[in-house]
Amino acid sequence: MSTTLYDKIFQAHIVDEIGDDALLYIDRHLIHEVTSPQAFDGLTQKGREVRRPDLTFATMDHSISTRSLAIDACGPANKLQLQTLADNCEANGIQLFPVGHQKQGIVHVMGPELGLIKPGMTVVCGDSHTATHGAFGALAFGIGTSQVEHVFATQTLKQSKGKCMQVKVSGARPLGVTAKDIILAIIGKIGHAGATGCVIEYCGDTIEGLSMEERMTVCNMSIEAGAKAGLIAPDQTTFDYLEGREYAPKGADWDAAVAYWKTLKSDADAKFDIVVELAAKDIAPQVTWGTNPGQVIGVNQPIPAPEDFSDPIDRDSAVKALKYMDIQAGQKLADLTVNHVFIGSCTNGRIEDMRAAAAIAKQGKVAQNVTAIVVPGSVAVKAQAEAEQLDKIFLDAGFEWRLPGCSMCLGMNDDILSQGDRCASTSNRNFEGRQGRGARTHLVSPAMAAAAALAGRFADTRDFIAND
Amino acid sequence: MSNQSSPANAGISVHIGHVAPLNQANVDTDQIIPKQFLTSVTKSGYGKHLFHDWRYLDLHEQEPNPDFVLNKPEHEGASILLTRENFGCGSSREHAPWSLDDYGFKVVIATSFADIFYGNCINNSLLPVQLESAQIDALFEAVAQDPACQVVVDLPQQQVRFNDQVIGFDIAPHHKNNLIKGLDAIGQTLELDAKIKAFEDQQPAWQY
């Protein structure tokens, strides 16, 4: 019987079958300070141990300052959470990359750059953007803290098999259209909950043509369409990215691994539960206008009216979103002034994102009314950017150049917006209050964010590319 | 018939309570419990911050928003949250069900749930009940007519009962079983240790 990539990875990890559920073995467990303390507590209360500390890796990312390496820089609660992670990792023999460590970074940036994520793996983390790692052809999904505890104790998780949605993007990518624009256009098409209950496999020649970092951006936001995970079949791009990384196999092991990884693809006649197709030529640089990632338009499209939506739920959501975002139907994005720009996050905090933003930043100065911060996704990204003198470009243009972390994507540190602020953000969620109570978030690509910083309003990045 | 309270893993059976109607789709976990309350290292104490941005007019939770459903006197003490599509979307934070549970909700009834949130509810003995859109409308209508309307959520029989209506709901048998018995999921899996070990022994070292 022909099978999908999802079927193959799922099948290869079944330890036992329990009713409708399978007990899946978990190959890689990534942890951070926010969703792990209660899980460690649960273990302690029951006198249980971490079964495979060697498969578990920890970093500090959510609650840390981007201005200081001191763990108390964001107050006593954050400090306690970070110290608790350090203590728990120490007590359980788990490798931790704390603030200040050369390998520290946002969990979904750090893992791939160290080669910790390999094709065919099952990967979990108490964080919904674990979907990022599907870029390697790994089945990677976010879990709750009870499940973190379950993985600690058993290295397994009970899982029901989901549906599989194929999202096929075809054709040459137009100039100025980034991976972020592709995934936002996909979410716009299938909707904010359009893939609930599904694992998405992204395919088509547009997807095959993406770099690994671009694939991570696409898979990262699978959860924003409601999907449990996103997958891209591994290929030479994947192998080239992995080869030589610290935790990648070496020598004869490398050859054995690649031989296996090459088998990891959906059969040509595999049946998908849902098929969605997009043409790359139809995708323009995207900007979200509303309060969920599915409320998105091309930069030159007018802001929609509630009447444009046939579904009553969508109509009602549009009314609420227009009010919260303080915008009117028919308004042009180019007429919306922004006063904050955030470049970073597990979606867009990698070196290629820094380069794309810097290519725009070097063309001007940050507008007077705008505060713009650039937060590299990891210490390694920061070091590489500085080696390329991108930090200098940003600083010269009036951007702030910060220390790595999750930062303003969710504002668990002091990088938060105030009531009424409007932010062009390269992060992944534009929910009400996500970046600060009463603040308005518009999701965009790094290039679009940099363009908005210079223009002080939303601007079409393609106008800048023409000048480059 | 019992009106059981349900601390995590105690098991739930039949719940009778009043409904708080939150008439909105796509309620995300950032709304349920905003990020500034995620720095705690315990599972308790989140109830007072539930729906913080909507529930309070100020940052310090001193001024309740009189327009928000949980602040209306007629919905005080509600233990069943009624809402619409895609409830619990967004982040995987288990603080979301912890805050609902800590506030006093035992059941969430919605048209649909986000996947991770649904699983987190099951793991915290907070019963997620998925009903059809028209059934949800009927329940909203009943609560609008009579905010004190008693609703029975019967997990063994998989029924929601109010006024003279009886609505069946689906739930996976293993979820139902775990909710009713309040089983220790980790303890159950640990009994399969030999199988886990056998699986591990078959894996090539380069896999990790």
Whole-number mean pLDDT of chain A: 97
Spatial separation of the terminal alpha carbons of chain B: 51 Å
List segments of chain B where confidence is low: pLDDT < 50 over at least 5 consecutive residues: 1-9
Tally of alpha and pi helices of chain B: 8
| Widest β-sheet, arrangement of strands of chain A | 5-4-3-6-7
Shape of chain A: globular
Assembly state (oligomeric): heterodimer
Largest interface: chains, residues each: A-B, 78 and 54 residues
**What is the N-to-C succession of helices and strands of chain B?**
EEHHEHEHEHEEEHHH
CATH fold topology of the largest domain in chain A: Aconitase, domain 3
Distance between the termini of chain A: 51 Å
Structural class given helices, strands, pairing of chain A? alpha/beta
The CATH first-level class of chain B comes to Alpha Beta
CATH superfamily of chain B: Aconitase, domain 4
* Radius of gyration of chain B, in angstroms, nearest whole number: 19 Å
Name of the CATH class of the largest domain in chain A: Alpha Beta
Whole-number total of structural domains of chain B: 1
Structural class of chain B: alpha/beta
Tell the overall outline of chain B: globular
Task: Tell me the CATH architecture of chain B.
Answer: Alpha-Beta Barrel
Account of the 3D structure:
- The complex is a heterodimer of chains A (about 475) and B (about 210).
- By secondary structure, chain A is an alpha/beta fold.
- Chain A has two domains: about 5-275, Aconitase, domain 3; about 285-465, Aconitase, domain 3.
- In chain A, about 35% of the residues lie in helices and about 15% in strands.
- Chain A has 17 helices and 19 strands.
- In chain A, the strands form five sheets. A five-stranded parallel beta sheet of chain A has the order 5-4-3-6-7, with helices on both faces. Chain A has a five-stranded parallel beta sheet with strand order 17-16-15-18-19. In chain A, strands 11-10-9-12 form a four-stranded parallel beta sheet.
- In chain A, a hairpin with a 7-residue loop joins β13 (about 285-290) and β14.
- In chain A, α2 crosses α5 (about 145-155) and α13 (about 350-360) runs parallel beside α16.
- Chain A is globular, with a radius of gyration of 21 Å.
- Chain B is an alpha/beta fold and about 210 residues long.
- Chain B has a single domain (about 15-185), classed as Aconitase, domain 4.
- Chain B contains eight helices and eight strands; from the N terminus they run ββααβαβαβαβββααα.
- Chain B has helices spanning about 30, 50-55, 95-105, 115-120, 135-145, 175-180, 185-190, 195-200; strands at about 15, 20, 80, 105-110, 125-130, 150-155, 160, 165-170.
- Chain B has a four-stranded antiparallel beta sheet, covered by helices on one side.
- In chain B, β4 (about 105-110), α4 and β5 form a beta-alpha-beta unit.
- The termini of chain B are far apart.
- The model of chain B is unreliable at about 1-10 (pLDDT under 50).
- The interface between A and B is large, with 78 and 54 residues.
